[in-house]
Design goal:
single chain, 207 residues, mainly alpha, 3-stranded antiparallel beta sheet, 8 helices, 48% helix, binds manganese (III) ion
Length: 207
């Protein structure tokens, strides 16, 4: 058994200039695939039999196996990230809009605070909207670190802020990448589902 590179839920050309086909070719086709391949290559020595991806992440963290942690966490993070995107964009509505209004004041205030976190995060990492208890919170994690490995922080929405996510299309202008995605390229229906606290399952897979 082995982990696989999940299918993208849209075509690599669906986002036009917002996320180019070149970015998908490298970010999905090379970076994400390399994380899958390296996780599979390291699986054997764990002694785990047919683990779920989330179990590999927790095992690697508990064993201090940084190589396996980084690669397996990146497999999960990217699988979740692709699901957070949609070429159809739109706006948060219903229960999600109500929750953003409740915890951030308004959808615009949420976007402003999320952008601050995402642009202010130094170097490589991920900006996150998580469920923390019964409230939504914005945070970020460095490098491959992931809410899967942080009990009590349940993943709802993420943007990848590693340079490889935006450099081909936006060069060093990370704020422009964040704005473009938040305004036009988020699958808010997927984000809304994760209010149930089961976000980890939605990017998990069997090994
Ligand atoms: Mn990435």
């Amino acid at each position: 058994m082995a982990f696989t590179l999940p299918e993208l839920p849209y075509s690599k050309t669906a986002f036009g200039d917002t996320i180019s086909e070149d970015t998908f070719d490298y970010h999905y086709g090379k970076h994400h695939k390399a994380y899958v391949d390296k996780t599979n290559a390291a699986l054997e020595k764990t002694g785990l039999s047919s683990p779920k991806l989330s179990e590999v992440i927790l095992h690697a963290k508990s064993q201090g196996d940084n190589g396996l942690f980084n690669n397996s966490a990146q497999v999960w993070n990217h699988s979740f990230y692709w699901e957070c995107l949609s070429p159809d964009g739109g706006k948060p509505s219903g229960e999600l809009k109500d929750a953003l209004d409740r915890d951030f004041g308004s959808v615009d205030d949420f976007k402003k605070k999320f952008k601050e976190e995402a642009t202010g995060h130094f170097a490589s990492g991920w900006a996150w909207l998580v469920m923390d208890g019964d409230k939504l919170a914005i945070t970020s994690f460095h490098d491959a670190d992931t809410p899967v490995a942080h009990q009590g922080k349940k993943p709802v929405f993420t943007l990848d802020v590693w340079e490889h996510a935006y450099y081909l299309d936006y060069q060093n202008a990370r704020p422009d990448y964040i704005d473009a995605l938040l305004d036009d390229a988020i699958n808010w229906d997927f984000v809304a589902k994760n209010l149930d606290g089961k976000g980890v399952e939605r990017a998990d897979q069997d090994g």
